[in-house]
Amino acid sequence: MLRSAVRKLPVVTGLFATPLATEHPWSTDRGWGGYGPGDVVTVPGVLTAVREYRPYRHDPPELLLYSRTGRDLSGLRSLEAMGMAVFAPGSRFAVVHRYQVTDDPTAERILLFDVTTGGPVSPDELDTLRGELVGLAGLSAARADELLDFLARVPTGG
Questions:
Q1: pLDDT per residue over 11-32, tens digit each?
Q2: What is the DSSP string of 43-70?
Q3: What sign results for the dihedral spanned by CA atoms 136, 140, 147, 25?
Q4: Are 44 and 25 in contact (CB under 8 A)?
Q5: The whole model's pTM is what?
């Protein structure tokens, strides 16, 4: 029932962020230390993330999610829902990159790409993600290009 309700909301694409809190429904599976580039993670519960991206500000690792199937909560007419996306249980994400944000080893970002629908990553998606990695996530253009080259080869189930 929840999955069908979420799917009625409009799709939203782009880069979203969420802290990986200890109570997160998928943080205890293998522990994030066990996930690396190319691994695909399935979300067992509902996941929300924010579009209004700010520089790293969380104590736990932070997930950066490129949405292809997230649903826009802005239509709920709540200030808290503005700029938020929700992902239904069963959503799948490929791990693209992990990197330290500061000298603190716990200040880590994990970049995930939504592979729920499967199918190849389109050139338009790669261009959009490149701009967001450089502009929002603060990666160098060269590093963003390396990640996109890797992403183009990640199996997406399509």
A1: 988 888 887 754 455 543 455 6
A2: -SS-EEEESS--S---SS-EEEEEESS-
A3: negative
A4: yes
A5: 0.79
